[in-house]
Amino acid sequence: MHTILSGGRIGFVVVLWLSLALPALGAEPHGACSAVMRVMVSRTPGPVRLVIDGHERVLAPSRKHQIQLDGRSVGPQWEIRPSQEARVAGLSLSGRLVASRLGPDLVLVNEVPLEAYVAGAITGEMPTGWSTAALRAQAVASRTFALHQRAAHRKRGWDVEAGTRSQVYGGRKAAAAARDAARDTQCQVLTASGRPILAAFHSASGGRTASAAEVWGREVPYLVSVEVFEEEDSPDTYWRTRIARSTLARSLEKAGHALGQLHEAKIEDRTPSGRVRWVRFRGARGEVRLSGREVRQMVGESTVRSTLFELRPEGEDLVFVGSGSGHGVGMSQWGARGLAAKGSSYRDILRTFYPGARLSLWNRGQVAAFQKK
Question: Of the four, 98, 241, 297, 314, which is 20 to 30 A from 40 by CA?
């Protein structure tokens, strides 16, 4: 049983229901919920300190792709299933922990049931005091993203990372509201052509989301640009960052562009949603053109919060004045909050940000078939 999520691109949403609403989900987990996620919680060339059931342990890489535990070799791989909990890098974890080598690095992976992972991802990604509808929308997006990544990286040693390169994972101590949202949407997945979609999301769009084509260079039918009207309460609706020209010159040099004294920074082109496509920097020793994404990465994504910005010279400084936070593709979390506050259901929210995707209730057979594709 599924519904089609369909939406217009300019200021309104056209809803087309081609089947009955999803049935109420029972307390017993369905097949999709029995999937196991491999969450990479640490990757480092140095030692990793763990607390296993209250006892501190130290894992470290050693010669010839071996691993040491508390100074003693344990071979190329080590694993443990804590009886209570493990603490690693500030996270409280349950489930199996597996350590292995990847070149010079020691990689630590936590294996956790999908629905427990979803609850932990909601806790890490969205304030759990937000409304039920917003949390449920995040649950479906997080579950769908996880299954998409699980298929895309099944030959790798992990499916997702615990940080912002995938989605932030809050560990086993998920908030009660997050557990409720995961349970209430149990096994619901957004699909296109029978596969979980790339359910991208971000903090705030600045008034309009970006399409996948303008950010990642490829068109994705359900990741198009849509207007967002309900983000007024976001702290990122308006932001302003002042950076000294000398600081930018050093950042450019560190990135491989030694321009010397920086004379000018000029936005040359924008994407259809208004985000910066290209910025040209001109200095005493030359010039370079960088994409808006490269500029964010160069100066720090917490400093320049999105590529939706203006550049204003002020004396010896350059001022970035912008709106929104994140890459801008898919669901705006603050937009979801605003829609929920005005009475939208989580299905309404998903229709708005992933037009054309199907909201499906998956079972064990679908998961097994999908993993073989």
Answer: 297
In a domain, 297, yes or no: yes
Q: Judge whether 145 lies within some domain.
A: no
Token digits of residue 128? 């759990």
Q: Is residue 162 a contact partner of residue 168, using CB atoms and an 8 Å limit? A: yes
* 187 closest CA partner among 146, 219, 245: 146
Structural domain includes residue 306: yes
Domain termination residue (choose one: 77, 92, 112): 112
Q: How many domains does the chain have?
A: 2
**Domain span holding position 286:** 239-322
Q: Tell the burial category of 45 from Cβ atoms under 10 Å away from its Cβ (0-12, 13-18, 19+).
A: exposed
**pLDDT (tens digit per residue) in 70-122:** 999 999 999 999 888 899 988 999 999 999 999 999 999 999 999 999 999 99
Helix 132-152 crosses helix 333-341 at what angle (to 10 degrees)? 150
State whether residue 336 is helix, strand or coil.
helix
Longest Cα–Cα distance in the chain: 67
What is the average pLDDT score of the chain?
Answer: 88
